Sequence to fold (214 residues):
Amino acid sequence: MLSDDVRLELTGIEVHDLEPELCLLVTPNGGQYRITAPTGEFRAWLARCDGTRTRAQLLSGMDPAYAEVLDVLAGDGSLRPAADLDGARNPAATTVLIAGTPELTVPLARILAPAGYARVETLSDIDGPFPADPADTVVVAAFTHPAYSELTALDAYCADRGLRLLPFRCERGQGVAGPAITPGGPGPDFADVLARRRSAALDPRVVDAFATAT
Fold:
């Protein structure tokens, strides 16, 4: 469970009202949760999860069931400590290593190059020597396909070297960003994403096939 004094930030979720006191919350990683609460109140509460308030502040005066919502979203990866982004908020000290499909990585490098980062480079060989200081480095991976096997390998690469990882992939006609992964942090890694996909799949063999595809 996240600490009560940690500021929390929620990203990429969708909320669909089903009834006046029932809505469906959908996360970027495929999570779907039915929430029983006044929809207006719930939407207003979600808007407060913007990285400026702690867990204790978000739960103050709310129904105790909201604590479970925070824990579920943290496990899903769509809710994370705002402190996870502190390093990325200092571009001048940050090296960005880009990996993935050229159709996405080439324009991404062009966009990021003038953004004030210390370095923006392509990560072309995960078996080679590491080219930067891990504490000030973010790996951005962008793929035009689900890329389960590639992202699993990159996740292991980053975990071994203490690197932050921000994955993006295209799956079932949609772009899926995240979760932002910090080695040793409280949030999920890509293995957790695959585990959730597998448990929710009608046929887990489909997920296994994607995970082993090259």
Remarks:
- The CA atoms of residues 32 and 113 lie 36 Å apart.
- Residues 84-88 have pLDDT under 50 and may be disordered.
- The chain has seven helices and eleven strands.
